[in-house]
Design brief:
InterPro entries: Galactose-bd-like_sf (IPR008979), RhgT-like (IPR037459), SGNH_hydro (IPR013830), SGNH_hydro_sf (IPR036514). This is Rhamnogalacturonan acetylesterase. With 404 residues, the protein is of the alpha/beta class. It contains 9 helices and 14 strands. A 5-stranded antiparallel β-sheet has the order 2-3-8-5-6. It has a 5-stranded parallel β-sheet with strand order 11-10-12-13-14, with helices on both faces. A 4-stranded antiparallel β-sheet has the order 1-9-4-7, with no helix packed on it.
Length: 404
């Protein structure tokens, strides 16, 4: 069967609700499977461990992915990411001849917006995307899986699913970073939830609360939201930039007003808003304490959460605890560009921040607490880098995300 035929059948299956992909890889080389893509431009920098991408054309929606991992002939250690490097399975070990099954939910989207009624204001037919967006797996017409480490994949099964969605609105510390070495907590969070809740990460590098609206990203989220979904809101890093006059929000008046507007839009649709304070930047003073660069914005989020009776995830507090626990010497290993970047995490640092969020979700939001699979994380005693192995993604790009 040709790749074109396989993709056409996939779209037809998605429409009918039947299984979209049901592939037995046992005894087959991955390259024999339609949708297989080899390691790509980053393959030459690694040992030939069999890393590969698998893509299938799908309309936007929620999909349940069931993987059978293992191989009769050899042991493996499989890490799985989906779309733009969202982590779902980390370092799953299988012995020779052992098979294990893992299931997770993936959000797939496109940039299109519903057509406006006649006479309504015209804002455009799609989310405003830049070159990085267009080159990514986040806004295309397919679901992409990335198999890393020493992957041993016996079967892939994909089908439509119906589950509550956890929407993420935010900046580069939340967004799907498309290439190594940059990673956000939003990309690590899916690995800390079970298959009853799907993360829909719409955050954007460089975003402010104003630009998120102007680029129609918030509009896209609102068109997809349904009653019972969740909206996590985390801005501040770029909103505080007074040198960006068109998008600057002061922490006393306009920033709280925009937070309340986002909350109101969610509640009008029966969606549950959650406020997240921004992670602090990694700047130590001479006494080994983290300097405050976002305190006024974190305080504003805490006040709005209390006033509006909205759950609060205090990542600002926990990020400071994590960095101070690691100290000035070890904490750079949690940030991109070998620690030269003081704002954007690498895989390890993003995992720490996401673990802090998962712990607070389990403590503070009882409706979705049962879906959290990682709970016993202590920000004041974070694991060291060697204790959290996370395979790097295949693409490699040193380009820094927008924002700081």
């Amino acid at each position: 069967m040709s790749l074109t035929t396989a993709l056409a059948l996939a779209v037809a299956s998605a429409t009918s609700g039947a299984p979209i992909v049901d592939i037995d890889l046992a005894g087959k080389a991955p390259e024999e499977i339609p949708g297989y893509q080899p390691g790509g431009s980053g393959a030459e920098r690694r040992d030939p461990s069999g890393e590969f991408l698998y893509s299938v054309s799908l309309p936007q929606g929620t999909y349940r992915v069931t993987l059978t991992l293992g191989d009769k002939r050899s042991a493996g250690r499989t890490t799985v990411k989906a779309e733009s490097r969202r982590l779902f399975l980390r370092d799953v070990a299988t012995r020779r001849g052992q098979l294990v099954t893992r299931t997770f939910l993936v959000d797939v989207r496109d940039a299109r917006l519903p057509r406006q009624p006649a006479g309504a204001p015209r804002f455009g037919q799609a989310v405003l995307l830049d070159e990085r967006d267009l080159a990514s797996f986040s806004w295309d017409d397919k679901l992409t899986l990335e198999f890393l480490g020493q992957p041993r994949v016996a079967a892939i099964h994909i089908e439509p699913a119906d589950a509550p969605r956890l929407f993420l609105a935010g900046d580069s510390t939340v967004a799907d970073q498309y290439t190594e070495p940059f990673t956000s907590w939003g990309q690590m969070l899916p690995a800390m939830l079970d298959d009853h809740l799907v993360v829909a990460n719409h955050a954007k590098s460089g975003a402010t609360m104003k630009s998120f609206i102007a680029q129609l990203r918030f509009s896209k989220m609102l068109t997809q939201m349904r009653a019972g979904d969740w909206l996590f809101i985390q801005f501040g890093h770029n909103d505080q930039k007074s040198e960006w006059p068109m998008t600057y929000l002061d922490p006393e008046l306009t920033y709280p007003a925009y937070l309340r507007s986002y909350i109101a839009e969610a509640r009008r649709r029966g969606v549950h808003p959650v406020l997240v304070t921004s992670p602090e930047r990694r700047n130590f003073d001479d006494s080994g304490k983290i300097k405050d660069t976002l305190g006024a914005y974190a305080a504003a989020v805490r006040k709005v959460a209390a006033d509006e009776n909205v759950p609060l995830i205090d990542l600002n507090r926990d990020s400071i605890a994590i960095m101070q626990a690691l100290g000035p010497d070890v904490s750079p290993q949690a940030f991109a560009d070998n620690g030269k970047d003081r704002t954007h995490n690498n895989n390890y640092g993003a995992w720490l921040f996401a673990a802090a969020i998962a712990r607070q979700v389990a403590e503070k939001i009882p409706e979705i607490a049962p879906y959290v699979v990682l709970r016993n994380f202590d920000p004041s005693h974070p694991p060291l880098p060697g204790a959290v192995p996370i395979a790097a993604s295949i693409p490699l790009d040193e380009g820094k995300p927008e924002g700081s």
